[in-house]
Amino acid sequence: MALTNQTDILLESGTNELEIVMFNVGSGMFGINVLKVREIIQPVEVTETPNRHEHLEGVVRLREEVIPVVDLAKVLGYPPSEDPYNDKFIISELNQMKVAFHVHAVSRIHRISWEQIEKPGELSQGHDANTIGIVKMEENISLLLDYEKIVMDIAPESGVSLPKGKSIQYKDRTQKQLMIVEDSPILRQMLEDVLEQAGYVNSYVYEDGREAWDFIESKEEDPSTLPDLIITDLEMPRMDGHHLTSKVKNHPAFKQVPVVIFSSLITEDLYHKGEKVGADAQISKPEIVNLVDRIDSMILSE
Fold it and tell me: Were 107 and a residue from 22, 69, 159, 217 both cysteine, which residue would form a disulfide, CB within 3.0 to 4.6 Å?
């Protein structure tokens, strides 16, 4: 089941919407953004690897690629599948790597608004904080998982951090104010930490596009107090990064503020959508050195 054509409508819509693939693990119902999914396949033979992480089953060969297999039942604390015949591998791509998520069943694709997705409260989060959104469907709810965090728990090098042997040249960045809009708590903190190491010590930090837009809109009477630059993720509850970028760039008082999209979803197919909504730059996670260089080029004087 290939999903490469599922994004066509969304790419042209410019709406605050997304399509999610619904699936089950144990008794739980979950969703994953179609844009993260490359294909859905029947499980194939898994080659076990020695000393692997407890959430990894091993690796599979899919055409010419070797892909790790993550057992979501183990990640989320559910028992093994009771009906393995219906199991599926969801082949995903995020943070420039491919991963197969082993799930117990795949149901269908739903098109919803980001406004239907609420941030989980501390009590409802559970699953070792792997949940970043609660999707309100007509008859039930499902959970949107923090897939980047799940992968980072297994392979920390896939996260936002300075690569080994890399450093960021020191410049006086203390007078500049950034806005960071990122819903994943772990990625939000890592991004903030690395930017502080680079000298960007003054940042507004928001968990979704709606929170960020409410703050920006409150500055309409005094745009001089706006941040010097906005860094936004794409996938966020209530308002996604494309919609936030569009609102900023279509407002006469705010359109001069540079907006950088920093996301695991910056693919060739999606790049033109960011251009359409007016993004000044688009950088794929986890290229943090490239991100700092682009920020410098836009807001620092030579």
Answer: 22
What would the pLDDT profile of 27-45 be if each residue is shown by its tens digit? 999 999 898 899 999 999 9
Residue ranges matching CATH 3.40.50.2300 in the chain: 178-299
pTM summary value: 0.80
Percentage above 70 pLDDT, the chain? 87
pLDDT of 2 reads 52
How far apart are the C-alpha atoms of 164 and 88, rounded to whole Å? 36
Q: Which amino acid is at 48?
A: E
In the chain, CATH 2.40.50.180 covers: 17-154
Give the dihedral of Cα atoms 282, 149, 96, 113; nearest 10 deg.
-50
Domain 17-154 coded CATH 1.10.3300.10: no
The class that CATH gives domain 178-299 is alpha beta
